[in-house]
Amino acid sequence: MERVFFLLGKGGVGKTTSAAGLALTLADKGKTVFWASIDPAHNLWDALGMEPASGVRHIAEHLWAQEVDLDRYLQRILKETTQRMKSFYRHLQIVNLEGILDVIRYSPGMEESAVLYALRDILERHSDKDYIVVDTPPTGLTLKILSLPFSILLWIEQLRKWRRRILDRRGIVASVMGRDALGKDVAVKVQEDSIYRELDRQESQARYMADLLRNGEIVRNILVLNQDRLSLMESKRIKAFLDRLGLPLNMILLNRVGLVDEVEADILEAFPSIPLKRLPNIGPSPDLKGLRSLGSLWAEEVA
Ligand SMILES: Nc1ncnc2c1ncn2[C@@H]1O[C@H](COP(=O)(O)OP(=O)(O)O)[C@@H](O)[C@H]1O
Ligand SMILES: [Mg+2]
Description:
Blueprint: E1 3-8, H1 15-28, E2 33-37, H2 44-48, E3 57-60, E4 63-67, H3 70-88, H4 97-105, H5 110-125, E5 131-135, H6 139-177, H7 194-214, E6 219-225, H8 229-245, E7 251-257, H9 264-270, E8 276-280, H10 288-295, H11 299-302
Parallel strand pairs: 1-5, 1-6, 2-4, 2-5, 6-7, 7-8
Antiparallel strand pairs: 3-4
Helix pairs in contact: 1-10, 3-4, 3-5, 5-6, 6-7, 6-8
The structure holds adenosine-5'-diphosphate and magnesium ion (MG).
The site of magnesium ion (MG) has 5 residues, from helix 1.
């Protein structure tokens, strides 16, 4: 895997269209490309003028695409969480797992977790491809997904401290009352604690994503916007977010140039020193030829 491209921007500005152009152009150059949509409101096949289909599809020479089934990933998280909770708390008989699962299923953050899980899985499964192009959901959800690995790392640091305190207290009880007083499944040392191991596991997954997202050699973040004030305002928020997390911003695509031009000067001012490409409006429902012509205006430069 040489590169991972994320297309970011407000809904309707042309992320999917640009992702299609990028994927087609790079595949035409002989690189193997996997194009994944992690937008719950999939429209990857619409953009290509194809009938909807599930699973991985071969689109053109060197190019595969998939609308990722996020619900399946959510089910997978829930199933794995139940299995792990059952094993962690097997010494407790009173845990109502079904009740806990319902709480987890409808908890804030579950959608983001499912998308992040899906993203990690896609990156691992298709690491044999040269390029992976990710078509993202609307800004709010995308930013939560991208920040999730970093917030998980902060949480784990705290949880580790609390867990160590619990184990310390258990150690005190064990030294006063004897090890057997705690029950044989109750861990006292870090090395024997399954919860601590789980924190290690979660940490390594989050770190993999955090390191990847910050890897300026591999990741290319591309911001798509139109010449209107709302898309500019949202783009500025995205840029500020990327800066805050230390994530790169590699290119600005000013898409559908010529429709209306409210803010050109402000756009130039907002993103100094980031390469900017102007993509023309090419008429309704761009076909494969149109998508390729748009992609060829910028794809190689950012790759
Ligand atoms: N350069 C362009 N020329 C003509 N139509 C375009 C162009 N870019 C996007 N569109 C059209 O605009 C609409 C929204 O584009 P889309 O790529 O789906 O946006 P997003 O993925 O950001 O929501 C689609 O109908 C698409 O065909
Ligand atoms: Mg889209």
